[in-house]
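Q: Could you fold this chain for me?
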Amino acid sequence: MQEETRFVHVYTGDGKGKTTAALGLALRAIGAGWRVLFVQFLKQGEYSEIKALRRLGDQVKICQYGSGEFVRGRPSEKEVASAQRGLNEVIEAMGTKEYDLIILDEIDVAMHFGLIPVESVIALLERRPPDLEMVLTGRWAPEEIIERADLVTEMRMIKHYFSKGIMARTGIER
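A: Sure. Below is the predicted structure, expressed as structure tokens.
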């Protein structure tokens, strides 16, 4: 049997759908029997996607590293420590060979705001085993990460009902 090549994906841009695309890939991977680690940076809470992933059983593990409160400005020491802990646990998980797909949701945003140094994520990608698929999501993906990725998709906002004052809706945006 020919060994499959595994790749690094980046889903970035100012449009909606980055996390959703990563979740779609996770769903497909789980359907194929893969084990998935879904790691969220900056987020905390029982969003609808987290509730759905939990229903899929032990083929997916979910980890959140953030307070869910940091949005802009200077992150707190607690936020930085949480993001760094998440990155360290991903490095540890890569070494276990337990997962076929690791999704790093909002890691691009964590890098943008200085919670995680870009160099640390580059080092992570360089240590990625060849039999591990990896997805990085979030606005503002650094050029150094884009250069190292095998697949890059930019979500571009053309029109969104948020501009009409419609807030995030359960089941659609959260």
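A (continued): Helices lie at 18-31, 48-54, 77-96, 107-112, 118-127, 143-148.
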